[in-house]
Amino acid sequence: MSITKAVIPVAGLGTRLLPATKSQPKEMLPIGRKPIVQYVVEELAEAGLDNILFVTGQKKRSIEDHFDFSPELGDKVIERDFPEHLSFFYIRQTNPNGLGDAISYAKKFTDDNSFTVALGDSVIMGGDHSSLLKRMVEIHENEKAGATVAFMEVTEEDVRKYGIAKPKGRVGASFEVEELIEKPHPSEAPSRLAIAARYVFDPAIFEAIKRTPAGRKGELEITDSMNTLLKMGKKIIGVKLRADEHRYDVGGFETYFKAFIDFALDDPEYGYMIRQYMRKKLKEV
Ligand code: UTP
Fold first, then answer.
1. Mean pLDDT of the chain
2. In the chain, where does DSSP find H-type helix?
3. Pocket flag, ligand 1, residue 102 (CB < 6 Å)
4. Whose CA is nearest to atom 4 of ligand 1?
């Protein structure tokens, strides 16, 4: 793959998961056996994205420690924590001023090349772990897009929680985006296609971020900047998650608990036991 650089923004405050995130990053909370962000790094590595920049902030140092060598653990680390060929880079976002602002810190790192962004609190599972990113990069390059964005189908009720695509024309496995609407009311949503935490950007996104004013919460929203990108005449392509691909967004307790249950049930050693336990528990309620 020609694109080898990836950015993982992990500087957010994680306020929806307080008090769990009071002194530790939400990206380091475990689902199943590993911290959330480790699944993200593994997905990037499998997709051939070997140079990874973390946009970090206060109280996020444990992420750097996690992706460092741990000689003191010796053979207690049974599997390697992360693939050997990866290079990690870190930059601090001065204030967690929104995802657009976080991504703007990657300008030097990307060195005028297209790059991917994977949110540090969202895991894509199912199918071939890295297939989504590989498809996105391929489409991005073929279409010479300004941005290529992953989308998942959500329920009508849930559109109000996400950035939603207004597609231009027919929606297939990939489609052109006419506009993005942030958290619309279900009656006003142009589709049920929600942005799903993975992006490929042309370097023009940095200019788009610069030209975009802060949103309602005073933060620089990447969805707004993608609309600016469209106004700048760039194309945005949506890539749909396949039926066997699932996004776990671990930003709030409901989705975090559901993710943990799924991963515990899938555990090769304890999954069967947990299933038995849950059957018994559910009979009691
Ligand atoms: P969220 O908006 O879900 O994370 O960003 P948050 O702001 O930490 O969460 P709440 O709303 O306070 O609970 C998705 C990802 O983008 C990163 C976060 O760390 C998270 O992994 N992010 C968000 C940044 O790096 N910088 C920001 O300014 C905002």
1. 93
2. 36-46, 61-66, 99-104, 107-110, 131-143, 204-211, 222-231, 253-265, 271-284
3. yes
4. 12
78 pLDDT band (50/70/90 cuts)?
A: very low
Q: Phi and psi for 52 in degrees, rounded to 5? A: -120, 125
Q: Identify the CA nearest to 47 among candidates 9, 2, 112, 92.
A: 2
Is the beta carbon of 251 within 6 A of some atom in ligand 1? yes
Nearest atom of ligand 1 to the alpha carbon of 13: 8
CA–CA dist 60, 118 (Å, integer): 17
CB 114 within 8 A of CB 200: yes
Our answer on whether the CB atom of 120 is closer than 6 Å to any ligand 1 atom is yes
Ligand 1: residue of 10, 18, 52, 99 to mutate (most ligand atoms within 8 A of CB) is: 99
pTM: 0.94
> Which among 17, 121, 199 is the best mutation to test ligand 1's pocket, defined by most ligand atoms within 8 Å of the CB?
121
Tens of pLDDT, residues 151-162? 999 999 999 999
Report d(CA 94, CA 11) in Å as an integer. Answer: 9
Report which protein residue has its CA nearest ligand 1's atom 2. Answer: 12
Domains of the chain: 5-251 (3.90.550.10), 252-285 (no CATH)
Measuring from atom 10 of ligand 1, which residue has the nearest CA? 14
Asked whether 162 and 195 are in contact (CB, 8 A), the reply is: yes
- Of 105, 231, 32, 159, which Cα lies nearest the Cα of 151? 159
